[in-house]
Amino acid sequence: MKVFKKGLMYLVILFALIMVSTAVAKIQYHDFVVQATPVKRLCKTRSTITVNGQYPGPTLEVNDGDTLVISVVNRARYNVTIHWHGIRQVRTGWADGPEFITQCPIQPGGIYTYRFTIEGQEGTLWWHAHSSWLRATVYGALIIYPRQGSTYPFAEPKRETPILLGEWWNANPIDVVNEATRTGGAPNISDAYTINGQPGDLYSCSSSETIIVPIDTGETNLLRVINAALNQELFFAVASHELIVVGADASYLKPFTTSVIMLGPGQTTDVLITGDQPPGRYYMAAQPYQSAQGAPFDNTTTTAILDYISAPCPFRGTPSTPVMPTLPAFNDTATVTAFTQNLRSPDNVSVPTDIDESLFFTVGLGLFNCPPNLSSDQCQGPNGTRFASSMNNMSFVLPSTYSILQAYHQGIPGVFTTDFPAVPPVAFDYTGNVSQSLWQPVPGTKVYELEYGSNVQIVLQDTSIVSGENHPIHLHGYNFYVIAVGFGNFDPATHTKKFNLVDPPMRNTVGVPVNGWAVIRFLADNPGVWIMHCHLDVHITWGLAMAFLVKDGVGGLQSLESPPEDLPPC
């Protein structure tokens, strides 16, 4: 009998452990159907590429430690891939998503299942198409809650609301980029910005669908703000309400209070907002930050409404105009700088110090001379040229026969080379009056190799070629510490002294200031091929990208997993 009881007790304990384990980490299964859907905005209906017929697409909600298994079925007429922006993809680079970098695209009629586990991340991320300009409408929030039994490092908010800032074209965005590629000129600007897919009250035929965000007197809510716009950095504010910034790019921050935030495409910011104003209706609004002088942009404002539940019924039933926030001027770089300087990790962090790879990358625009085989209407850039962009004078060209990761894994030659330069081929006054002899980059498909476990520092230096601009630079597969930003040309003799090696913010997308620089550091502990690119899609279209090839370390836990059997063919 005692043996039976002891055995029963062990079974109970084992069952309890299984239940705890199941509660801590789950496997979530989702189906994403990429399809054309009629969507009406700005008085017009057009066929729009969506996921599951939704614009924006479905929100994914997971806990740290969960595994996602997402089957993507392509019923659209374009090739497509999905990128899980900010997910580390530790050893699962085949699921990262950028076309021709880690996979060939899912062709019309095809299916691919993305499988990956969230490891040591919590906060706000997002997912989006990583093929051509499909991400204009193919995107959604990816929210990572703390592990079961854990909590936020701040008081639990009463409500949480994803705020996805987007960009809308009345035309098909694929047609827009294809026309720009044909002409060599700049693409047409968007027709509106959106909040959760809706332009808001200030645009035609839009007021009835304006997004309403509820709040009640005295409660504190969490806004998870995501800049999903294709080509525009955006200011965001809520009328009469202060924002307490507590996180960015799924990393917590030392809380600070501000009236406005700025996000580049790809970036996320978590803010707390308290219902401490007279009950009523208040606009939350986003409008552009445009740092490139003379470049055309969509200078409009998207709005949603913060609506107090406790407002008197007669007030809530009237069409009174909500209070509008005061937003900075479109070229207010000083406000952007002040906001950026407030970003700090909540505690002291372990920044890599013994640097193995010290890299210096210029980022910026360029111009290709018109090839003799093209007509003048195919060279509509400045003075009969074609727009380009580059890193270290290399204008990145995507492969078309294999992805770089496939070519590396299978030893297929001729797809890429490993000679991406560690420094610019020519040193010059990067933010000064640059000789036009340096304006034409060299096209190529080059990667930079990193040994597993190496400590990497990169100086990202904007240039004034064509025009200086704030570039949101995103690195796939990694988070990194932003240890310094500044203006002018980076000078190691003076600027190294300003490095924050104590509590720098951790990001996956860094804003390189207009005519300035940023310095990032990370540990290369994730094997695979990882693209680093400007998240202004017009710039990656022109070639502002490169890729790191991080070699396997020692043993299975430091090596890339084998490719899945259903990896899409080329």
From TrEMBL:
Its cofactor is Cu cation. The keyword Signal applies. Residues 34-148, 160-309, 420-552 form the Plastocyanin-like domain. Binds 4 Cu cations per monomer. Residues 1-23 form the signal peptide. GO terms for biological process: lignin catabolic process. GO terms for cellular component: apoplast. GO terms for molecular function: hydroquinone:oxygen oxidoreductase activity; metal ion binding. Its EC number is 1.10.3.2. CDD domains: CuRO_1_LCC_plant, CuRO_2_LCC_plant, CuRO_3_LCC_plant. It is found in: Secreted, Extracellular space, Apoplast. Lignin degradation and detoxification of lignin-derived products. This is Laccase. It comes from Eucalyptus globulus.
